[in-house]
Design goal:
Number of helices: 1
Mean pLDDT: 87
Structural class: mainly beta
Number of strands: 16
Strand content: over 45%
Radius of gyration: 17 Å
């Protein structure tokens, strides 16, 4: 199922356009509703996801990313931990200085509903408890933390965007760096930039 979904995403990705920066709408003690998820959602990248070193602007680029989410239909949820991301496949990855490298993750990532926006179909989300292992010739590192983004309920489009509202102050930071001379260092902030289409498309909405 994941493979067939990936093929559909790759052929339809060009149709996903018009993504713009949105501002979170102030909300107090909002609760969240998920509809149509059915317990399991697949995500496939609609382009090349990357992890970019914010200081040097050099990116670790992968040809795809596939992942799954345990996401149940619910209502009245406070938002944090509304779902769990797992089963990651980053495909083939490349860095301009070290060539091909591997990105792996064994833990579960938390998927959080954060805030509504002025567009009722778009919600601010975050992914936390991220832990990635990056390894290539002469370079190994751990990248961990959290990242902000948006989910579009009308199109099933999930985008990870460093410029999305980030009230939790989440960031991804490199640590346990071995080698990687001139490429990566402990304490460097990393950007996870990626866009995904979901199967099935599910609704995510908030109630003040």
């Amino acid at each position: 199922m994941v493979r067939s979904f990936r093929q559909r995403v790759l052929t339809s990705a060009a149709a996903v356009t018009g993504i713009v920066a949105l501002t979170a709408t102030p909300a107090h003690a909002a609760t969240w509703t998920v509809s149509g998820a059915g317990g399991l959602v697949f995500y496939a990248s609609s382009g090349q996801p990357y992890l970019r070193d914010v200081q040097t602007n050099v990116a670790f680029t992968c040809d795809q990313q596939l992942m799954a989410s345990e996401l149940n239909d619910t209502s009245g949820h406070p938002g944090p931990g509304i779902g769990v991301l797992e089963n990651f496949d980053w495909g083939t990855c490349f860095h301009p200085s070290i060539g091909q490298f591997a990105v792996t993750s064994e833990n579960f990532w938390e998927y959080n509903a954060v805030a509504p926006t002025a567009n009722p179909d778009v919600s601010v989300i975050s992914v936390t408890a991220i832990e990635l292992e990056v390894s290539g010739p002469g370079c190994e590192a751990t990248i961990s933390g959290g990242a902000p983004g948006y989910y579009h309920s009308d199109t099933g489009y999930l985008e990870m965007d460093l410029n999305a509202p980030n009230p939790g102050g989440h960031e991804l930071v490199a640590s346990d760096v071995t080698g990687c001379t001139g490429m990566l260092a402990n304490g460097r902030t990393m950007e996870w930039d990626a866009a995904y289409l979901t199967d099935p498309v599910y609704g995510l909405s908030s109630t003040p």
